[in-house]
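Regression test case RT-17, inverse folding.

Input:
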């Protein structure tokens, strides 16, 4: 019996129209375009504007585009998994809301939170439903409205993050295409370096937590940088070694779009040229759960990623969480 892989048969993505560029940030906080560019590689980021709009609105647009590309009815979808750090609300799941907005009434759906590694975690999870035969069509969404948890008076974090969402459709394949292997890792001790202080069960929202700005992203940049470079490179090297791959055998590296210095350092450790790396950071910033997806979508759309190529995905996020995936597209 031939092995069933979960193949990516369609990709969709959405970013909001409003663009927050470095020139505008210079007017908001004590920073400069040169300072931002030299430390992050980011020039602009998209921000979701409008009352009552959340992660589900971006996710729904990405899914609608995906379904249109594939030419299938929303009722054919069996499962929807949404990776997000910024759900529309504490409950119900944003995946439930996306399913309702798109009309995927036959799908069961749930959210997954692994911060910036969320898409690779959700991709791994979704692939298991395909490989086991439990589902025939699975949609994995990665989306975040990071602007909803960013303090725009904090120059260390407001320059980094943007909003966006992407989605992939997984279907069974017996010709060797699809998700070949994944590795996921986590280390909860890293939470002290990157987290949101309030809003959970340990420290529920109160007037005091709001006044103290404890519902925004807290990040210790240097610690996160060191962990990210080491662990993203290590897990990617591990997955390449156990699948008998070298840098020249991988057509494209699609990394989490956190920081250009992290991306360059990771590529160097893997002995891969930057010509093999998909980078969307300059025009989108760090979109957390959406970042790998948005980069992957762009490279598929412009023809860089071609059928039959081996693609390496990698991400690192709060928690800490990190992971890597090998795909034959």
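Golden output:
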């Amino acid at each position: 019996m031939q092995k069933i892989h979960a193949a990516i048969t369609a990709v969709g993505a959405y970013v909001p129209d409003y663009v927050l560029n470095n020139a505008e940030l210079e007017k908001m906080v004590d920073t400069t375009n040169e300072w931002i560019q030299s430390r992050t590689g980011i020039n602009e980021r998209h921000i979701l504007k409008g009352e009552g709009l959340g992660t589900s609105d971006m996710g729904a647009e990405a899914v609608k585009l995906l379904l249109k590309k594939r030419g299938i009815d929303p009722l054919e979808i069996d499962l929807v998994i949404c990776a997000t750090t910024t759900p529309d609300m504490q409950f119900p799941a944003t995946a439930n809301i996306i399913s309702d907005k798109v009309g995927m009434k036959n799908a069961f759906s749930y959210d997954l939170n692994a911060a910036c590694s969320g898409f690779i975690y959700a991709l791994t999870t979704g692939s298991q439903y395909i490989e086991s035969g439990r589902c025939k069509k699975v949609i994995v969404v990665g989306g975040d409205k990071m602007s909803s948890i960013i303090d725009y008076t904090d120059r260390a974090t407001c320059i980094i993050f943007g909003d966006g969402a992407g989605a992939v459709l997984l279907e069974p394949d017996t010709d060797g295409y699809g998700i070949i292997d994944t590795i996921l890792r986590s280390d909860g001790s890293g939470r002290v370096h990157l987290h949101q202080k309030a809003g959970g069960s340990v420290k529920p929202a109160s007037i005091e937590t709001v006044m103290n700005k404890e519902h925004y992203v807290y990040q210790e940049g240097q610690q996160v940088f060191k962990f990210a470079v080491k662990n993203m490179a290590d897990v990617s090297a591990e997955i390449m070694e156990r699948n008998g791959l070298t840098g020249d055998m991988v057509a494209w590296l699609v990394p989490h779009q956190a920081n250009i210095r992290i991306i360059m350092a990771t590529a160097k450790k893997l002995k891969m040229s930057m010509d093999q790396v998909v980078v969307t950071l300059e025009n989108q910033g760090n979109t957390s759960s959406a970042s790998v997806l948005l980069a992957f979508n762009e490279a598929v759309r412009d023809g860089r990623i071609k059928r039959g190529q081996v693609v390496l995905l990698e991400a690192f996020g709060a928690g800490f969480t990190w992971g890597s995936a090998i795909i034959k597209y």
